[in-house]
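[agent] plan:
  1. take the single chain provided in the ticket
  2. run structure prediction with default settings
  3. attach structure tokens to the ticket
  4. add a short note for the reviewer (M.T.)
[agent] executing step 1
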Amino acid sequence: MITSLDGRLHPGRWSDPVGDTIDHLVTQHYDTTAETFDADGWIVGRKSMAEYLGEYDAPELLASPRSRPPHMVERDGRQLAIVIDPSGRIAFDSGLVDGEQAVSILSERVSDETLSQLREKGVAYVFAGADGHDLGLALDWLGQMMETYGTCCLRAAARRTGPSWLPV
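[agent] step 2 finished; step 3 output follows
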């Protein structure tokens, strides 16, 4: 997370620095810093991912949660682009986001139609409880289903939630 001196979180609201562009500055510092973590992926919320891919209107959710298995796809060594999207609103064109494998964290109330669309696009998904907010459960699923999840982006979240797969 990066912020400007006046507290604005979104780079689109920042002014360009003298002799440069804000996009270049953010890329230079943010991406360079991110590369030092040696992480296998990154996690963002729905609104942040929607800026990359767009989103659908809120789909109709099931009246009550339904337990279903997660859907994983072959990762082929790609980094993971994980989005917390409880209602399944992100408009994926494919299972890749900038060449990285898309993984959606969903509520157990998403419809079978939404899940089918994600599978057709090649998007992996896991569930985060009835309302989609149980990130400990989602991280536990991710850790069990994927080969290498001893990563920086997941370790920080795991320290708070304590999934059973985190190496001690």
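[agent] step 4 note for reviewer: Residues 22-35 form the longest helix (14 residues).
[agent] ticket updated
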